[in-house]
UniProtKB/TrEMBL annotation, chain A:
This is Branched-chain amino acid transport system permease protein. It is a multi-pass membrane protein. Its main location: membrane. It is found in: Cell membrane. Belongs to the binding-protein-dependent transport system permease family. LivHM subfamily. Signal peptide: none annotated. The chain crosses the membrane at residues 12-31, 37-54, 61-84, 96-116, 137-159, 190-211, 223-248, 254-277. It comes from the Bacteria. Keywords: Amino-acid transport, Cell membrane, Membrane, Transmembrane, Transmembrane helix, Transport. InterPro entries: ABC_transp_permease, BCAA_transport_permease. The keyword Isomerase does not apply.
From TrEMBL, chain B:
SUPFAM superfamilies: P-loop containing nucleoside triphosphate hydrolases. The keyword Repeat does not apply. It comes from Fusibacter tunisiensis. The keyword DNA-binding does not apply. This is Branched-chain amino acid transport system ATP-binding protein. It holds the Pfam family ABC_tran.
TrEMBL record, chain C:
It holds the Pfam family BPD_transp_2. It comes from the Bacteria. It is found in: Cell membrane. The chain crosses the membrane at residues 39-59, 64-83, 95-114, 167-186, 216-237, 249-274, 294-315. It is a multi-pass membrane protein. Its main location: membrane. This is Branched-chain amino acid transport system permease protein. InterPro entries: ABC_transp_permease, LivM-like. The keyword Plastid does not apply.
Amino acid sequence: MSTFLQVVFRSLETGSIYALAALGIIIVFRTSFITNFSQGVVAMFNTFVVTYLFRTMGLPLWLAIFGGIISAILVGFLIDIVIIRHTKKVSPVAKQIITLGMIMIVLGITPLLFGVDPLRLPRLIEDGNLTLLGADISYNGLFNIVFGIAVMVTLFYILQKTKVGLAVRATASNEHTAKLMGVPTKTVTLGAWAVAGVLGVLSGVMAAPMTSVTLNLMDEIQINALIAVVLGGFQTFYGPVLGAYIIGIGRNLLLYYGSSVWGGQILYILILVFLVFRPHGLIGKKIIKKV
Amino acid sequence: MHIDHQPNMDGLVLKIENLSIAFGGLKAVDDLSFEIKENEVFGLIGPNGAGKTTAFNCITQFYRPDSGNIYFKDRKGKVQNLLEHGVHEIIELGLVRTFQNVELIRELSIIDNVLIGAHTDFNATIFDQAFRLPRAVKEERRMRQKAYEILETLGIEDRADQLVGGQPYGILKKVEFARSLISDPKLIILDEPAAGLNDTETMELSKRIRRISKELNCAILLVEHDMRLVMDVCDRICAISFGKFLAKGTPKEIKENKDVQVAYLGIEVTENAEE
Amino acid sequence: MNTIKKIIKNPYAHFILLGVLLLFVPVLAETGIFKVSYITTLGGAFIFAIAALGLNILLGFSGLISLGTSGFMGLAAYVSAYVTMDMNLPFEVAFLLAVLIPTLIGVLVGLVSLKIEGIYLAIATLAVSEVLRKTFEEFDFFTNGFSGKNAQYPTLLGTFELDRTGMYYLIVVVLVLIMILTYNLVNGRLGRALNAMRGSEAASQAMGVNLLNHRLIAFALATVYASVAGVLYVHFIKYSYPSIWSLKLSLDFLAMIIIGGLRSIYGTLIGALIVFAVPDIFLKQLPYFNQLSYVLNGVLIILVIIFYPHGLVYARYDIKRLFNKLFKKGA
């Protein structure tokens, strides 16, 4: 029982990381209609900014993270203003290739600015363990879980209950109509890229202490987040979050109780089989074309 | 449910028996029966939402009816129950349809779009095609010639190599018509062929429908809103309302039928009056 | 005069002429006009062009998107390396097995594509590719894990030992052959059926196109092309690491066909050159900017997509117009 709980706690932590990344992807998708393959790489860049502020500039970690958030917002604005706004005529598939171009730019710039050596970013709460029902969890892990959930609950509250959220949802359901109704869709899109950036850097800062800060920091997270979005469905904001936690938990359980070598692959195959039966994810409806 | 019986199809090309389909409890087509004779122009009419389109989506197997039988005399004269065939097998039997909102491929030339209608008439394998073996080349040339001749009869052969994208609506309708003709059909279902056409084009269309059914020895099922066209070209008409059979007969009989006047013309008149 | 005109207009003549021109690259490299390293760069770009052509059949013609190309290409590379190095079987046998095995999996994905569509299909194929990539990492005795698997230049028919230049010639021949086969396929019955399937599922079915068959054919073709590319890759570059066969590479393939032009055979080649050869051959030669070649390539990709959303093949009309303008001014 205690090992099981231990695995679940670990999973909730990775689940939170995937969920933040997945939420970043779906927010951009719903407002700009782009599957953002650069979500992870941009998050990696901003995590490098945090690491730079912390290690080279010697700022305290929380202040460095704050700096990373500012950087994420600015980079988000930059992407929208310089690139995304000029892609109105571009087909949906080609838009995804624009994010590939962005990946190349970020992958090229990052080593020039921050060097090629892997860097270490410590945990926000350095040490300390909590024992819950016989299972150990670090304070930092617990903080990540709670913080991740808090960020998402806040975002969902804003989306569902506030005027800003209404504008976002209106843009997501029909950009053209929203514009006619006076929703400032340009601002909504701008904000979406900034929020996605912030969610990205948060997931990056959570993931970084588990490995080291390198160009590949977010590769695995990006892929799991994309699969989480498909598992949850593209039609809601909360579906992908749900998908992310399922992947986080399912993956660790399979790795621990199934096979430490094949667990990840088995999970993906299970998801594929699930998609065959529910082609639009957990929460999603098929749109039928009439002839 | 049904005992498999061979219906008497003497002189008939299509026989529909007790066709029913419901969507979420709503009966779109309810116990509908009618038959189409060989080489006749048959009209299926009814007010908006009467189930015309649903009925023929059942015939062409886009929908699977809940009950009923649909018999069709194929190109070889054999009687087939269409329910036993997949949607992509229907055209091979000799039954082809057009679409209300013209479903053509914009990025292909007009003649290539027509050739899609001959898809099932090709025998060359992928291997033959990839290496352009003589039999593939010959077949392609023969079909292209046939497509060109059909375009000629419709008077649009000069546009054969132009792309479909950007062509005027009247031309698109003709291309779709040509695409259905190339398959040598026994029965063509035209889904609102006059929609979006102007008066001259509609008149031209009615002449064309008559000519085609005579020259090609095929029957035509016309699902149409434009009453003038229906009354003008059809040999016989079946009127339906709310998915149910209403009346059957010559255009004259339908015009004079009380039920039809109430259900169809009547409703239309009151609707117009309200406006 | 007429026969010359006919030859000039013949599409096959174009493909063969292109092939002959490309065969001269090693000769030019020997005379010192080209750097010798360009042989590797161009050969690599042509290999990727082959896989991208397959993806173009899938996405451009059939409208089915896949992010699994790199996984299938990698699988073929490992199979071929394993069969030649560990089983000591001839290159030809390796080639057949390396095409057959991924294609079987590709056909399975084709089955899935009947149910899953659009972006869902893209990411489902990404999951397949990831399963393969992780298998490359873990399946040590077959792939040699993270250390990478080595392969050698092949010996054709047991007698012709190829070196790098020989391998380059083989790549050009295969590329031209595949371009011709693709041209034949997409301009015939199959191409029309795939186009119809993309344009309108309903209409294509009504015209007798069996959706299941054609989706399977499209996926099988795309996987065969990717597998051929994978075999050529592993015997040209001579090694294979799991990290090569990543999402990034699949996106690169997508970039090639979008940049070059959907449904364009030459466009795919142009796209492959831009994504793979331009950084090495041009951007790295620029003074001050050689460090930024990757960044510049990203910028280039974004600019091309914004200014030529239908692909660079359409730039030829602009070039023609510009040419006419200059010419008329001169006259």
